[in-house]
Specification:
transmembrane, transmembrane helix, mainly alpha, single chain, 0% strand, membrane
Protein backbone atom coordinates (compact mmCIF):
# COMPACT_ATOMS: atom_id res chain seq x y z
CA UNK A 1 0.00 0.00 0.00
CA UNK A 2 1.36 3.41 -0.99
CA UNK A 3 1.99 5.94 1.76
CA UNK A 4 1.17 9.64 1.47
CA UNK A 5 4.70 10.54 0.37
CA UNK A 6 4.65 8.09 -2.56
CA UNK A 7 1.15 9.22 -3.56
CA UNK A 8 2.37 12.82 -3.60
CA UNK A 9 5.38 11.87 -5.74
CA UNK A 10 3.15 9.96 -8.18
CA UNK A 11 0.73 12.89 -8.42
CA UNK A 12 3.62 15.30 -8.98
CA UNK A 13 5.09 13.04 -11.68
CA UNK A 14 1.76 12.76 -13.50
CA UNK A 15 1.25 16.52 -13.29
CA UNK A 16 4.72 17.21 -14.72
CA UNK A 17 4.12 14.61 -17.45
CA UNK A 18 0.86 16.34 -18.38
CA UNK A 19 2.53 19.77 -18.39
CA UNK A 20 5.33 18.41 -20.58
CA UNK A 21 2.84 16.93 -23.05
CA UNK A 22 0.83 20.16 -23.23
CA UNK A 23 4.01 22.16 -23.85
CA UNK A 24 5.60 19.86 -26.42
CA UNK A 25 2.55 18.63 -28.32
CA UNK A 26 1.95 21.76 -30.48
CA UNK A 27 5.55 21.70 -31.75
CA UNK A 28 5.43 17.93 -32.23
CA UNK A 29 2.17 18.26 -34.16
CA UNK A 30 3.69 20.87 -36.49
CA UNK A 31 6.75 18.68 -37.13
CA UNK A 32 4.50 15.67 -37.90
CA UNK A 33 2.47 17.70 -40.42
CA UNK A 34 5.69 18.91 -42.06
CA UNK A 35 6.68 15.30 -42.78
CA UNK A 36 3.43 14.41 -44.54
CA UNK A 37 2.49 14.66 -48.17
CA UNK A 38 -0.16 17.24 -49.05
CA UNK A 39 -2.69 14.45 -49.64
CA UNK A 40 -2.06 12.88 -46.22
CA UNK A 41 -2.48 16.26 -44.51
CA UNK A 42 -5.77 17.03 -46.28
CA UNK A 43 -7.11 13.55 -45.47
CA UNK A 44 -6.44 13.81 -41.74
CA UNK A 45 -4.44 16.09 -39.47
CA UNK A 46 -4.29 13.47 -36.69
CA UNK A 47 -2.63 10.54 -38.44
CA UNK A 48 1.09 9.86 -38.72
CA UNK A 49 2.80 10.07 -42.12
CA UNK A 50 3.10 6.80 -44.03
CA UNK A 51 6.75 7.70 -44.69
CA UNK A 52 8.91 10.66 -43.81
CA UNK A 53 8.64 13.27 -46.54
CA UNK A 54 11.58 15.69 -46.29
CA UNK A 55 10.76 17.24 -49.65
CA UNK A 56 8.65 19.81 -47.80
CA UNK A 57 11.79 21.14 -46.14
CA UNK A 58 13.56 21.39 -49.48
CA UNK A 59 10.58 23.29 -50.90
CA UNK A 60 10.50 25.69 -47.97
CA UNK A 61 14.28 26.17 -47.91
CA UNK A 62 14.85 26.67 -51.63
CA UNK A 63 11.64 27.57 -53.43
CA UNK A 64 10.21 29.84 -50.71
CA UNK A 65 13.51 31.59 -49.96
CA UNK A 66 13.67 30.42 -46.34
CA UNK A 67 17.44 30.06 -46.65
CA UNK A 68 17.77 33.83 -47.20
CA UNK A 69 15.37 34.68 -44.37
CA UNK A 70 17.15 32.17 -42.13
CA UNK A 71 20.56 33.78 -42.70
CA UNK A 72 19.11 37.25 -42.06
CA UNK A 73 17.71 36.04 -38.74
CA UNK A 74 20.97 34.34 -37.81
CA UNK A 75 22.98 37.52 -38.47
CA UNK A 76 20.55 39.77 -36.59
CA UNK A 77 20.27 37.34 -33.67
CA UNK A 78 24.03 36.83 -33.28
CA UNK A 79 24.86 40.54 -33.54
CA UNK A 80 22.05 41.62 -31.21
CA UNK A 81 22.89 38.94 -28.66
CA UNK A 82 26.56 39.98 -28.70
CA UNK A 83 25.60 43.65 -28.23
CA UNK A 84 23.22 42.71 -25.42
CA UNK A 85 25.82 40.61 -23.59
CA UNK A 86 28.55 43.26 -23.82
CA UNK A 87 26.55 46.34 -22.83
CA UNK A 88 24.05 44.78 -20.44
CA UNK A 89 26.76 42.84 -18.57
CA UNK A 90 28.90 45.96 -18.17
CA UNK A 91 25.87 47.98 -17.04
CA UNK A 92 24.76 45.24 -14.64
CA UNK A 93 28.19 45.15 -13.03
CA UNK A 94 28.34 48.95 -12.77
CA UNK A 95 24.90 49.24 -11.16
CA UNK A 96 25.65 46.35 -8.78
CA UNK A 97 29.19 47.08 -7.60
CA UNK A 98 30.23 50.61 -8.50
CA UNK A 99 29.27 53.94 -6.95
CA UNK A 100 28.50 56.95 -9.15
CA UNK A 101 26.14 59.97 -9.05
CA UNK A 102 22.55 59.26 -10.09
CA UNK A 103 23.03 55.49 -9.91
CA UNK A 104 19.54 54.71 -8.56
CA UNK A 105 17.84 57.28 -10.80
CA UNK A 106 19.41 55.96 -14.01
CA UNK A 107 18.70 52.35 -13.04
CA UNK A 108 14.99 52.97 -12.52
CA UNK A 109 14.77 55.09 -15.66
CA UNK A 110 16.03 52.10 -17.66
CA UNK A 111 13.71 49.70 -15.86
CA UNK A 112 10.79 52.04 -16.55
CA UNK A 113 11.00 50.97 -20.21
CA UNK A 114 9.41 47.66 -19.22
CA UNK A 115 6.15 49.51 -18.55
CA UNK A 116 5.97 51.03 -22.04
CA UNK A 117 4.09 48.87 -24.60
CA UNK A 118 5.97 48.30 -27.85
CA UNK A 119 3.06 49.61 -29.94
CA UNK A 120 3.37 53.05 -28.31
CA UNK A 121 7.03 53.55 -29.25
CA UNK A 122 6.74 51.92 -32.68
CA UNK A 123 6.20 55.19 -34.55
CA UNK A 124 8.94 57.16 -32.71
CA UNK A 125 11.39 54.32 -33.29
CA UNK A 126 10.56 54.17 -36.99
CA UNK A 127 10.91 57.95 -37.29
CA UNK A 128 14.32 57.82 -35.62
CA UNK A 129 15.51 54.90 -37.77
CA UNK A 130 14.23 56.63 -40.91
CA UNK A 131 16.10 59.85 -40.10
CA UNK A 132 19.27 57.80 -39.63
CA UNK A 133 18.66 56.28 -43.10
CA UNK A 134 18.64 52.75 -41.66
CA UNK A 135 15.24 51.61 -42.95
CA UNK A 136 15.55 48.34 -44.91
CA UNK A 137 18.88 47.52 -43.27
CA UNK A 138 19.66 44.91 -40.64
CA UNK A 139 21.10 47.53 -38.20
CA UNK A 140 17.57 48.94 -38.09
CA UNK A 141 16.67 45.78 -36.17
CA UNK A 142 19.69 45.48 -33.88
CA UNK A 143 19.46 48.70 -31.86
CA UNK A 144 15.68 48.60 -31.14
CA UNK A 145 16.06 44.94 -30.14
CA UNK A 146 18.84 45.95 -27.73
CA UNK A 147 16.59 48.66 -26.29
CA UNK A 148 13.83 46.10 -25.81
CA UNK A 149 16.03 43.55 -24.03
CA UNK A 150 18.17 45.93 -21.93
CA UNK A 151 15.73 46.52 -19.00
CA UNK A 152 15.02 42.84 -18.36
CA UNK A 153 18.65 41.85 -18.95
CA UNK A 154 19.83 44.59 -16.58
CA UNK A 155 17.60 43.33 -13.78
CA UNK A 156 18.88 39.76 -14.20
CA UNK A 157 22.54 40.76 -14.48
CA UNK A 158 22.53 43.34 -11.70
CA UNK A 159 20.90 40.95 -9.23
CA UNK A 160 23.43 38.25 -10.07
CA UNK A 161 26.45 40.53 -9.57
CA UNK A 162 24.98 41.90 -6.33
CA UNK A 163 24.96 38.37 -4.92
CA UNK A 164 28.69 37.92 -5.59
CA UNK A 165 30.77 38.78 -2.48
CA UNK A 166 32.38 42.22 -2.36
CA UNK A 167 35.47 40.54 -0.92
CA UNK A 168 36.30 39.33 -4.42
CA UNK A 169 36.56 42.93 -5.61
CA UNK A 170 38.61 43.95 -2.60
CA UNK A 171 41.02 41.06 -3.09
CA UNK A 172 41.47 42.00 -6.74
CA UNK A 173 42.13 45.66 -5.91
CA UNK A 174 44.68 44.63 -3.29
CA UNK A 175 46.49 42.80 -6.09
CA UNK A 176 46.58 46.05 -8.07
CA UNK A 177 43.62 45.45 -10.39
CA UNK A 178 41.50 48.31 -11.69
CA UNK A 179 37.70 48.13 -11.73
CA UNK A 180 37.77 46.94 -15.34
CA UNK A 181 40.38 44.27 -14.56
CA UNK A 182 38.34 43.07 -11.58
CA UNK A 183 35.30 42.83 -13.84
CA UNK A 184 37.14 41.09 -16.68
CA UNK A 185 39.37 38.71 -14.69
CA UNK A 186 37.29 37.93 -11.60
CA UNK A 187 33.61 38.75 -12.04
CA UNK A 188 33.10 37.82 -15.67
CA UNK A 189 34.36 34.21 -15.33
CA UNK A 190 31.93 33.74 -12.42
CA UNK A 191 29.07 35.08 -14.54
CA UNK A 192 29.10 32.35 -17.21
CA UNK A 193 25.75 30.86 -16.11
CA UNK A 194 23.98 34.23 -16.22
CA UNK A 195 25.60 35.04 -19.56
CA UNK A 196 24.20 31.80 -20.97
CA UNK A 197 20.77 32.66 -19.59
CA UNK A 198 20.82 36.15 -21.11
CA UNK A 199 22.07 34.73 -24.42
CA UNK A 200 19.14 32.30 -24.58
CA UNK A 201 16.56 34.93 -23.59
CA UNK A 202 18.00 37.48 -26.03
CA UNK A 203 18.15 34.98 -28.88
CA UNK A 204 14.56 33.87 -28.26
CA UNK A 205 13.32 37.45 -28.21
CA UNK A 206 15.11 38.44 -31.41
CA UNK A 207 14.43 35.22 -33.30
CA UNK A 208 10.68 35.33 -32.67
CA UNK A 209 10.13 39.10 -33.02
CA UNK A 210 7.73 40.00 -35.80
CA UNK A 211 6.15 43.46 -35.42
CA UNK A 212 9.25 45.66 -35.62
CA UNK A 213 10.84 43.52 -38.34
CA UNK A 214 7.68 43.90 -40.42
CA UNK A 215 7.55 47.66 -39.79
CA UNK A 216 11.18 48.59 -40.47
CA UNK A 217 11.92 46.20 -43.35
CA UNK A 218 10.02 46.40 -46.64
CA UNK A 219 12.69 44.86 -48.87
CA UNK A 220 11.81 41.15 -49.14
CA UNK A 221 15.47 40.17 -49.42
CA UNK A 222 16.06 41.61 -45.91
CA UNK A 223 13.14 39.85 -44.21
CA UNK A 224 13.83 37.84 -41.09
CA UNK A 225 12.54 34.29 -40.70
CA UNK A 226 9.46 35.27 -38.67
CA UNK A 227 8.31 37.70 -41.38
CA UNK A 228 9.32 35.28 -44.14
CA UNK A 229 7.25 32.46 -42.63
CA UNK A 230 4.23 34.77 -42.33
CA UNK A 231 4.67 35.76 -45.99
CA UNK A 232 5.04 32.11 -46.99
CA UNK A 233 1.86 31.27 -45.09
CA UNK A 234 -0.10 33.38 -47.59
CA UNK A 235 1.06 31.11 -50.43
CA UNK A 236 -0.68 27.94 -49.26
CA UNK A 237 -2.94 27.97 -52.32
CA UNK A 238 0.08 27.54 -54.60
CA UNK A 239 2.64 25.59 -52.52
CA UNK A 240 0.30 23.74 -50.17
CA UNK A 241 0.19 23.54 -46.38
CA UNK A 242 2.90 21.01 -45.57
CA UNK A 243 5.83 23.17 -46.80
CA UNK A 244 4.51 25.95 -44.54
CA UNK A 245 4.64 23.54 -41.60
CA UNK A 246 8.20 22.72 -42.62
CA UNK A 247 9.10 26.41 -42.50
CA UNK A 248 7.50 26.72 -39.06
CA UNK A 249 9.47 23.69 -37.87
CA UNK A 250 12.75 25.19 -39.07
CA UNK A 251 12.01 28.39 -37.18
CA UNK A 252 10.99 26.67 -33.94
CA UNK A 253 13.62 23.93 -33.81
CA UNK A 254 16.53 26.39 -34.00
CA UNK A 255 15.67 27.82 -30.57
CA UNK A 256 15.23 24.30 -29.19
CA UNK A 257 18.71 23.35 -30.39
CA UNK A 258 20.22 26.56 -28.93
CA UNK A 259 18.61 25.83 -25.57
CA UNK A 260 19.81 22.23 -25.53
CA UNK A 261 23.37 23.38 -26.29
CA UNK A 262 23.33 25.91 -23.43
CA UNK A 263 21.06 24.01 -21.06
CA UNK A 264 23.77 23.22 -18.51
CA UNK A 265 24.67 26.83 -17.81
CA UNK A 266 21.02 27.91 -17.99
CA UNK A 267 20.03 25.44 -15.27
CA UNK A 268 23.04 26.51 -13.17
CA UNK A 269 21.92 30.14 -13.25
CA UNK A 270 18.37 29.21 -12.21
CA UNK A 271 19.69 27.04 -9.37
CA UNK A 272 22.09 29.76 -8.24
CA UNK A 273 19.28 32.33 -8.18
CA UNK A 274 17.10 29.97 -6.18
CA UNK A 275 19.80 29.37 -3.57
CA UNK A 276 20.87 33.01 -3.27
CA UNK A 277 17.36 34.40 -3.41
Amino acid sequence: MMNKKNVYKLFLFLFMLLAFFISVYPLLWVVIQSLKTETEFLESIWTLPARLNFQNYATAWNDAGMSRYFMNSVVVTLVTTAVNLVFVTCAGYAFAKLKFPGKTFFYYMIIFNLLIPTAIILLPMFTMVNRMHLVNTLPALVFPYFQGFAPMGLIICRNYFEDLPDELMEAGKLDGCSNMQVFRKIMLPLAKPILATMAILSAMQVWNEYLWALTSITDESKYTLSVGVALFNKKTETVGYTPVFAALSISALVIVVVYLCMQKNFVKSIAAGAVKG
